[in-house]
Design a protein that fits this description.
Helix content is about 35%, strand content about 30%. It has about 260 residues and is of the alpha/beta class. It folds into two domains: about 140 residues, 3-Layer(aba) Sandwich (Rossmann fold); about 100 residues, OB fold (Dihydrolipoamide Acetyltransferase, E2P). It starts with 5 loop residues before the first strand and ends in an 11-residue tail after the last strand.
């Protein structure tokens, strides 16, 4: 027997929320609407109470908007799948597409909604959290871009939990296979955000690329030394390991 999934619609325009609910009733009849929320704070309260499987988030809402709401949700260990609904913000649409995050453009076309529902069915059946992680990376990038701010926090997996690490505490980022290691004085964590995307979001005055696969926090560099072969290495505050610097970036430390 197919499970009856449940969803919540967060939309500040009641008529638009009603239209989307009717459309979903037509193309996803086995799912049940748990109601609507008029802003992000209302959505978070209802999600905590009802635990829906999916939330349809309007990007632009008064108070806490859809992106800020998604940021809160994606940091939780258990979170609903998120579908963004937007009438504009072309840059956001491009980012959602690039990050494999689903979105709907207003007015929502039945054919597009049907494809979205098909993807939701597949992801709900798989039980994978990868989609939530994709949303988190996308949202962090968009918020930094929209606010003109640099990245302040990274989300990292630690066992079965998710931790929020301030970038001020990060000593270095190092790419490894499909992951990036986040090194702090307390230990290492892993994230999926590509090193290239991190570099675009970090403050370039503080975070310096020192190798093809390494970015260091310059505020935590204690000293730069050369080994017996002449290779430059960095001693970082709070760690015994040394970070290698390639010749391409050696000029950054000539005054040290």
């Amino acid at each position: 027997m197919t499970r009856a999934y449940r969803y919540l619609i967060a939309e500040d325009e009641p008529l638009l929320a009603q239209v989307l609910e009717r459309q979903l009733a037509d193309c996803w009849p086995e799912a049940r609407c748990e109601g609507t929320a008029e802003n992000g704070d209302d959505a978070l309260r209802r999600i905590a109470e009802l635990h829906p499987d999916v939330v349809f988030l309007d990007v632009r809402m008064p108070g806490r908007d859809g992106l800020e709401t998604a940021q809160v949700l994606s940091a939780q260990t258990v979170a609903p799948l998120i579908v963004f609904v937007t009438a504009y913000d072309q840059y956001a649409v491009e980012a959602f597409t690039a990050a494999a995050v689903d979105y709907l453009l207003k007015p929502v076309e039945p054919e597009r909604l049907a494809r979205c529902v098909a993807r939701l069915r597949e992801r709900l059946a798989s039980g994978s959290r990868e989609f939530v992680d994709e949303v988190a990376r996308c949202v962090e990038h968009l918020l930094a871009r929209r606010q003109g701010n640099h990245l302040r926090v990274v989300r990292a997996g630690v066992g079965h939990a998710v931790s929020l690490i301030s970038v001020d505490d990060v000593l270095w980022f190092e790419s490894a296979d499909k992951y990036v290691t986040v090194a702090t004085a307390k230990g290492d964590s892993l994230i999926r955000t590509p090193l290239r995307e991190l570099l675009e979001q970090l403050d370039p005055d503080i975070f310096w690329q020192v190798h093809r696969g390494t970015i260091v926090n310059s505020r935590h560099v204690v000293s730069a030394v050369r080994d017996e072969l002449g290779h430059l290495e960095l001693l970082m505050r709070g760690r015994k390991e040394k970070v290698a610097v390639s010749r391409q970036f050696a000029h950054l430390f000539r005054q040290m």
